[in-house]
Automatic annotation (TrEMBL), chains A, B:
Catalytic activities: 2-formamido-N(1)-(5-O-phospho-beta-D-ribosyl)acetamidine + ATP = 5-amino-1-(5-phospho-beta-D-ribosyl)imidazole + ADP + phosphate + H(+)
Entry keyword Nucleotide-binding: yes
Xref: InterPro entries: PurM-like_C_dom, PurM-like_C_sf, PurM-like_N, PurM-like_N_sf, PurM_cligase
PurM-like C-terminal domain mapped to chain residues: 183-357
Entry EC no(s): 6.3.3.1
Protein name, per record: Phosphoribosylformylglycinamidine cyclo-ligase
A biological process from GO: 'de novo' IMP biosynthetic process
Length: 365, 365
């Protein structure tokens, strides 16, 4: 996928990837500062989202991320107490996808001009999300940055919100989950996503702006789940489901987990390819169907399936690679925990990821 | 200090403190999620900047902060490779002031539109600062947020930059440094600051804007150190000195450190009062003189000393409380490490902080 092929999102994925790679190269040069000392980074995790660092016998992971432009939805709807779920999901689920059980989170709120009440609502939601996922909020900062922060005009407060989470390698794992132990024939279990999570909002917003104008968030939503979401704003603000408690429970139960992919920016195939090592590929012919709001946006916005699967999770927020004989038990346990899960496909000896979805067959790599 | 007394900085310190206290109250409610588990927060650190969390035998500290509006200076001067020192200083020196030796740092760059070259310069500076302070950069994120980010018009890139640092409690310490062990008669050792660090820029910028107009950064700087800083922009962009290696070296040498205050927003007295427990006070009659640029800004901007000492570090970036008989040795060791340090005063049995400076006597509390 080259920069010139990207739809009208305003961003170049390739430029971003290049800058991230370069930033990581600078970071890597600092690893030797901790050689043989507390905080020494583990080797061989190039390109991973959650870096392993060691303190004595303890093996910790660390992950940083924000919730991007989803915040504009909260500003448009003047409703701030669900964003905490999005904030926790981004880092906690990156950590658990690498085998680290999230334990602590530190958050930074950059605001233009402080609103005590908005910060209170944000923190209430963060508290709720951290109770849900058994994470202690052990650090935080609120910075008033004036005109350095922008957002939806007339909102009580404009802000950006990011966090850094720490986790501890699950005691059953000798190494972080990387997909290195995966084999052809392994089952892929999908966990359903009831929301956009925090990705793909630029494409969604620009499409709705084009169709409905400036007040697109007030437009009646007419997807099959319209009873739940009266407006397009409501449909897009739906909070992230946090998967880390469910995946941690699988590890606690000794399920043979061989890899996990948190589906964020880049969509199903791009994120799943990171767990495919040793030349393996995958065929995913039983993914969850697209989130109704995504499906409806494709229809009314004329967005091709190829594009939608590149920018949105399309209803699948986490993919797990498990030994084939354990797949049914894994699905059962996830279901018992209240998560929607199903066997979505299998690993193949040949490279490349094929998605067989209602819109047709999509091939990657 | 009440909100109505603040000079023209655009911000209310009291409103910010209230929101921070409320955010901390929400955070504290999540501590029990880790009771008896990895990542359990230590008790009794209310109001501390660096929270202690425990993993097995390991006792870690975590601290988050950004570099605020100092970034506008870099944008005005189109020079980005020194901000890394500011970023590291904010969190690393909060950690070491609590007795945690910083080991790892994760950073988040929020940008309007990505500039590969600016990110490269930022990361080069961060690399340099982390080499200086023996910190491994083990996490990072670059987020393109479009119009949610503002800054100096025409800059190659507008951005905000924050980080979360982790540290390990120095092995010589049974508890984090809090000032609880301090006694009347203890010596206060000041470490000189050669820059504003990352605080007080709103007051500085507004003053210069008023005096010199929009292009104030190009105005010739006429302080006594003008040979080093041709323009006011250069004088204000001067990077932070990172104290953590020096304070860690004191702990390594077994110096009887009983408290430490990192002088950031709020100035000398407000930050130093945090280490004064059990009703103690302090008399500081031999602080380093104000940074020349701060002194000059007071003169040309008509800023009273009371205000300046409330918003700026005034040349003193870290204050250490040490047993009186060790004060000279501590100063000697710091000097040998290349830091400017001197005995600045002493603890008193009576509450309140008195600063005896060239501008007169300033009393707090």
């Amino acid at each position: 996928m080259s920069a010139s092929n990207t739809p009208d999102t305003g961003y170049s994925i390739e430029e971003g990837n290049n800058a991230s790679r370069n930033a990581y190269a600078w970071a890597k040069k600092t690893f030797t500062t901790r050689a043989g000392l507390p905080g020494e980074p583990a080797r061989g995790l190039d390109g991973g989202f959650s870096n392993e660092i060691r303190f004595g016998q303890e093996r910790l992971g660390i992950s940083s991320d924000g919730i991007g432009t989803k915040i504009e939805l909260a500003e448009r709807l003047d409703r701030y107490d669900t964003l905490g779920y999005d904030l926790v999901a981004m880092t906690a689920d990156d950590l658990i996808a690498a085998g680290f059980v999230p334990t602590n989170l530190s958050n930074i709120i950059d605001v233009n001009t402080l609103s005590y009440s908005v910060v209170d609502e944000l923190m209430r939601g963060l508290h709720d999300a951290c109770q849900f996922s058994k994470i202690a909020i052990t650090g935080g900062e609120i910075a008033e940055l004036g005109s350095r922060i922008g957002g939806y005009p007339g909102a009580r407060m404009n802000f950006n919100w990011a966090s850094t989470a720490i986790g501890v390698l699950h005691p059953s794992l000798a190494q972080p989950l990387s997909g290195a132990a995966a084999q052809p024939g392994d089952a892929v279990v999908a966990l359903q996503s009831p929301s956009f999570r925090s990705n793909g909002y630029s494409l969604a917003r620009k499409t709705l702006q084009r169709l409905f104008g400036d007040k697109w968030h007030e437009q009646a939503y007419d997807g099959p789940d319209a009873a739940q979401y009266p407006t397009w704003g409501d449909a897009l603000l739906a909070p992230s489901l946090i998967y880390s408690p469910a995946v941690a429970a699988l590890l606690d139960a000794g399920q043979p987990l061989r890899g996990a992919a948190h589906i964020t920016g880049g969509g199903v195939a791009d994120n799943f390819q990171r767990v495919l090592q040793n030349g393996l590929g995958a065929e995913l012919d039983n993914l969850f169907p697209p989130l109704p709001a995504m499906q409806r946006l494709c229809e009314i916005g004329g967005i091709e399936a190829e594009t939608a699967y590149l920018y949105w999770n399309m209803g699948n927020g986490m993919l797990l690679v498990v030994a084939p004989e354990a797949a049914d038990a894994v699905v059962q346990q996830l279901t018992a925990l209240g998560y929607a899960a199903q066997v979505a496909g299998r690993l193949m000896a040949e490279a490349g990821v094929t998605l067989r979805v209602a819109a047709g067959e999509l091939r990657y790599g």
